[in-house]
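During the no-cost extension, the postdoctoral fellow (Dr. R.K.) reprocessed legacy sequence entries with the updated structure-token encoder. One reprocessed record is reproduced below for audit purposes.
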Amino acid sequence: MNLLNSAPAVGFDQPYEMLEACHERVERSLNLLLRLGAHLRARGEVDQQARDAASDVLRYFDIAAPHHHEDEERHVLPLLRQIGRGELADRIAADHVQMHAAYLALRPGLEALRDKGLMPDTKAWPVFAALYRAHIALEEVEAYPATRQLSRPEVLAIMGAEMAARRRNG
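Re-encoded structure tokens follow.
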């Protein structure tokens, strides 16, 4: 089971590319979660590999995912509203709430696996992954292309600087 330890290859000077790189990391985290579920079913017990994978999934969705959603809510959704795509912005914002709630439902099982070696209920994990994947597709097919065109270099520089600062400050 591979652990998540590679950083995106792009920097905050390219904020849309960074958002897309974050989606790649979400996908790796979702794949790890689903592989973890298969690993647990195949073994029938918790081992150190499973605990390490749970730790990696928790770390991503506790830290990186909230930053990513905040980036979109501060920079992408206002632009969508500005160009008359408020319904799309509202859907993305609602997805963020729904995905966070779904994650909070999985989190105790992942923590118990990591901390106590207890087998979690994995039934909701594929639903969580499907929810995130549909959301990513919506952003990459509709939201990012619509707003990227509006972003002048100075706007992108501010966006990237704010994204980087949020990660440094918390």
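The chain has a mean pLDDT of 92. Residues 8 and 150 are 24 Å apart (CA to CA). The remaining legacy entries will be reprocessed before the final report is submitted.
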